[in-house]
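Q&A log
Question type: sequence-to-structure
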Amino acid sequence: MRQSLRNSGKTWTQTENKTLRTLAHQNKPTKFIAGKLKRSTDAIRKHASEKGISLRLKSTTNGRTYKYKVKTRSTSNGRKRH
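Response status: OK
Response body:
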């Protein structure tokens, strides 16, 4: 049986709104934010959309998002390849 989330069905507080905005600005994944706020990922996405908060992962300085890391492996001559 699925465990009920503590804040399920409750209205959002100003503190929760601020936390959501801050974590989204820090580029945290939706699942991480949901865990912090004890709400479902669907609730996080819906509320963020209603408040105009972007949950899209932003690029890092190397042009890749931090969520997807490219694994490198060494070749026989010691060089790394992707």
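Response note: The longest strand covers residues 73-74.
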